[in-house]
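---------- Forwarded message ----------

FYI, see the RING-type E3 ubiquitin transferase record below. Original note from H. follows.
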Amino acid sequence: MDKVLLSYLAFCRRAQVQATLLCTENEQIHGGILDLVNHYRITKLVMGSTPDNCFKLKYGKESLMASSAPAFCQIWFVWRGRQIWTREASAATDNTTAVHYQDDVMTTKRIRFSSYSNNEETRPDEGYVSGEALALDLNQVIISDHGDYEALGAHEGNHLYSMSMAKWQDTKPGLNSTFLSDSSVHMDTLPLHSKEVLDRNLKQVMMEAEGSRKEAFVELLKRKETESKVASAFARVKDSDSAKKHEIKMRGGLEVLLAATRKQHEDLIKNKERAVAGLESSMRRLAILDARAEKIKLQTDEFSEELEVVQSSIESLRQKKLKMPMPEELSNCMPNAFGDDLYSFREFTLLDMQSATCEFSESFKIRSQGHGCVYKGEIMNRTVMIYKLHPHSMESMKQFQQEVYILSKVRHPHLLTLVGACSEALCLVYEYLPNESLHDRLFSRCNSNWLPWKIRARIVAEISGALLFLHSHKPQMIIHGNLKLENILLDTECHCKIADFGIPRLYADDMKDSPSFGEGSEPKGSFPYTDTEYKRSRVMTPKSDMYYFGMVILQLLTGKQELEGLAGDVRRALSCGKLSSILDPTAGQWPTEVAGRLAELGLRCSETSSRDCPELTPGAVRDLEQLYFVREERAPSFFLCPILQEIMHDPQVCADGLTYEGQAIRKWMEAGRETSPVTGLKLEHRNLTPNHALRFAIQDWLRHSHTH
């Protein structure tokens, strides 16, 4: 029952008719219905009916309702979707529904079915035709009561009409029906002519109804098609609006991009103008420099000729002097142990040493070291550095003279020159360097003249060259044995010279083995590291110098004075890729390649095992000399090709006004491109013009970089 009522509610909702469900309980169906009619004052009631025979029509609930319902209530009895008969209300109501048939000939009449007797079953055609006409008119009434045909929908309307016709045709021909009219005329009493007229009118009405239904259906289809077109038009309008908004947004973005591109192009033009102006200025300066170079070349040729004359004069004087006899006093001052190199070495007396240092005054002392004390003195109008050795544990004076003779023959640009010696005072006389030691330059608190990384890399290369020279000395190898920052002196141009080389050769073996060797009155930490191989064997080897050399490299890199754990810190930073975090910031920005190679060399040299320590070779020294040639500054941006981002060797001007590497721009054009690689604009032509001014400027800059 609930499903049936819900289906009725759904039908009313589709027809846009408000409906409500009322439920009541009663022992008799018609009694419950009457109670609802009386309670709610229902003026119109539709009931289902099953008029199978006259008995049910007279004694069923339909008959009881027709006789018992209030007079103000109009009742329609329907069966299978068709109205069977109507019980009119005695009082007039606002909305009275009746079945009307209308044509051009007859006036409107209210008719009702009349009961057919069993003997009237032989006339089924008349009753069947009248019933079909009534069913058609009922369909028209339903359409009129519920609004236009389109409100129900084409499907519901067609279905209702088809259902009504099919169910009416299924009705038995002997159905007992009654037509009630104002004159109470029965169908069987009508004249034959009237029946024919009525049949024609009914058929005409049916045809008109069928035509109207088809027209309504066609109109419905047209309306649906129109709605679809309208919806499609709205969708197109919406898409057009969206496309228009997107176009406006894209246009705004393109305008911004175009403005940025124009500004960039203007900046490029300005940069080009500045570059051209700079090139013109460079060309003018280059012409001036060429003139100066030509003048200097002429002067050099003149000086070369004069130098040759001077050298020939010196050589002739030397030959003459060699042929002259040596004065007796000079012969006494030069023992045979020191050889005959009179121009590079001289033997001094004790009186000379005392006069030069004011009796070895403390005011002339520079520093104290493990082997002795260092003084500053004046000899023969020349400032010298006097190294006074401790006299104890010397094997013999002859050995001292022999070792000094060997050291006097050693000459290298980065070794401190031994200018003389005093056998009486056990003094070595060296040239004096006015600048400080490398230790003072790195760790002095009052020093503000820092060493940049280039000078530090150059010092490493100079030390390596000096060590290679000592280790390769013939006929006897020389071991420095005491290489540290205090023994590395700097001249006015920060070129280094190593002092104290070969000093351990002057001491007896038992002195080297004593705990006091390498120690003295100098402060703690002045000799902070020792070769582990020397600790085991007590023999100085080239590996010992390499170990000290590695520690010097690590100090130059980090700027740290404390050496304990320094190698481990550098090794950890290098393995983690954070070497820059421990580099000395006062040296400036170290190039990654230079710092990495020096750190690796320092760590290899400071290995505890001599087997892992590298050997100095001429190739290794040349590699170190090339490190400080790395250019610190980048090339100017207009020296770089916009395509390759490399320095141009064959600069060519393109149609866009920019300069490219010749090979790169030719490949660009050969690939079929007709636009500028930088601006993206179309090139007016494909011709290239050599930029000689820029090429000369690049070559000059490269020469200047290599010389520095």
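H. also flagged this: The first strand starts at residue 44 and ends at 48.
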